Amino acid sequence: MNVNVERAQLSDLDNLVRMERATFNYSCISRRSFKHLISSATAYCWVARGGNRLLGYALVLTRKNSSVWRLYSIAVAPEARGKGIGQKLMDELISCARKSQAKALSLEVKSDNKAAIAWYQDCGFETIDVLANYYDDGSDGLKMRFTFDPESP
C-alpha cells in the first residue's frame, strides 16, 4: 500500500472527526477543535493517506517558549492497523521536531493501554510520571517523554 504523510487540510475535517470517534471512546477532539488546530501556528496535524483514503493522523502541540513538543493524539483507522501507518506518522513528527530543534516530545497515555505504551517505548519514549485520575473516566495516565540526543543529526 502506497502511503503519503502530509499536513492536514481543512477538507480533511469530516474524515478526522470520523476517525477520532472510531478510535477513542473518551475525550474526543471536536470538529471545531480540529478546525482551529489545523489552522494554528502552534500545532501540527499530519495525515496518512492511501490513495484518497485517510488512514491515520497525528496531532502535535507546540508553545512559543518551550522546546518540548506534545504529541496530543495519534490514531490509525481500524482497517489500516498493523501496517506501519502509525510508525510513518511518528517518523514524520519526530523528523519535523528534530528539524525545528525541539529538545523532546511528550505525551500522555492511559495506563491500561498496554499496546500503545509498548509501542511508545519501542519508539524511544520513557515513562516519567504517573498521572492519577487523569482521564475523564477517572483512569490514570502515564506521562512519557522522548528526548532528542543532542549529538544526533
Question: The biggest beta sheet, please?
Answer: 7 strands, mixed
Q: How large is the count of helical segments? A: 4
Q: CA-to-CA gap between the ends?
A: 30 Å
* Structural shape: globular
What structural class do you assign from the helix and strand content? alpha+beta
Largest beta sheet: strand ordering: 1-2-3-4-5-7-6
State the order of secondary-structure elements, H for helix, E for strand.
Answer: EHHEEEHEHEE
How many strands?
7
Low-confidence stretches: none
Oligomer: single chain
Strand residue percentage: 25-35%
Q: How many whole angstroms does the radius of gyration measure?
A: 15 Å
Overall mean confidence score, pLDDT: 91
Q: What's the helical proportion of residues?
A: 25-40%
Structure description:
With 153 residues, the chain is α+β, with helices and mostly antiparallel strands. 29% of the residues lie in helices and 33% in strands. It has four helices and seven strands; from the N terminus they run βααβββαβαββ. It has helices at residues 13-23, 31-39, 85-99, 114-122, and strands at residues 3-7, 43-50, 53-61, 68-76, 104-110, 126-131, 141-147. A seven-stranded mixed β-sheet has the order 1-2-3-4-5-7-6, with helices on both faces. The protein is globular, with a radius of gyration of 15 Å. It starts with a strand and ends in a 6-residue tail after the last strand. The mean pLDDT is 91.
